[in-house]
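Dear V.,

Thank you for sending over the compound details. I've combined the ligand you provided, 2-acetamido-2-deoxy-beta-D-glucopyranose, with the protein sequence from our construct and run the structure prediction for the complex. I'm sharing the raw inputs here so there's no ambiguity about protonation or stereochemistry in the SMILES, which I know was a concern on your side last time.
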Amino acid sequence: MKQLFIFALGLASPLHVAADPASYDAQIIRSLPHEGAPFTQGLELVDHSRLIETSGAYPEGTESFIRMIDLKDGSVLQTTKSGLAGRFAEDVAPTATGWLVATYHDGKAVRFNADLSVESEVDYPIEEGWGLCRDSQEDRYFATNGTEFLMELDSETLALKRVAPVTCMGYKVPGLNELEFVADFNGKGPTVFGNLYKTRFVLGIDPSTFECTSVFDLEGFGEQDPQEEYGFHVANGIAYLPGSKTFLVTGKNWQNMFEISLEAAGNTHREKLRKKLRHFASQTASFLATGMRSQIPALPSTDVRGKLRVTRREPERAIAPDESHSPEA
Ligand SMILES: *[C@@H]1O[C@H](CO)[C@@H](O)[C@H](O)[C@H]1NC(C)=O
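Below is the predicted structure of the protein with 2-acetamido-2-deoxy-beta-D-glucopyranose bound, written out as structure tokens.
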């Protein structure tokens, strides 16, 4: 009956019956300043003690950069715009010896050495660069381009090796943005995590089937902008901290980064997450051809921009950064 009703409304119906993803409740352990509140496009852990972050050139008048951050207190250790001038930097992923930064529309990626000096510029096979992460076990990259497709790239040549849609509860899901590879998530094996553009969902994807196996949301983290559904101020940036099995998350122009732990969601939260995710997936699936195509939102009117909804979610417990929660070496 419900399916018929949804169908009659013109919304897409699931491709097949698929298992619901495991739902998690994200608890804030500590909050760190997000210096300069940049337009975050990539976030990765470096040597258990630092973060590497990329920012796109937004709003107009700003430039893309890559920077190194101290995980203890969020302070910026090093920043460079080298190799990114006139470009829109996207996600960053490790290489064997340094970093690889995707760009939005240039068909190029930039290789950086570990010290953030530019090593080279390489062809990037994806017309519109979005997310990028490295599976160091299987030695391959995964990338997205704003559509429902997840792409596997050769670690050396970056050649496309596999292209298939991400599915969640049987629906194709477009808009996976910043990506993070977790070698073993919660004993469930390798998982590709990604921020879902224009939402506060983070999906965990099985890299062999491209089906979503985990979901949590960042609802109520920091300030929430009513324009997020149009692409402003969206959650973007996930770094996994294997030592403490926690995640560092932030968003575009967010004032803070948050270290979070995940716990299995209780019944109420699980049902809420599923309902919202199903609604999002069924709706976006019906306008795949036009939805989720731009990383760069058009400027809304100032009266709307001025109104930040202040639904700040504070850390559950205050833990000094260098005490019990510093990641293990
Ligand atoms: C995204 O990638 C898919 C699969 O490779 C391709 O068909 C599509 O044209 C690409 N779209 C954009 C906007 O880059």
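A first observation: The pocket of 2-acetamido-2-deoxy-beta-D-glucopyranose is lined by residues 127-128, 145-147, 149, 151, 163 (CB under 6 Å).

Warm regards,
I. M.
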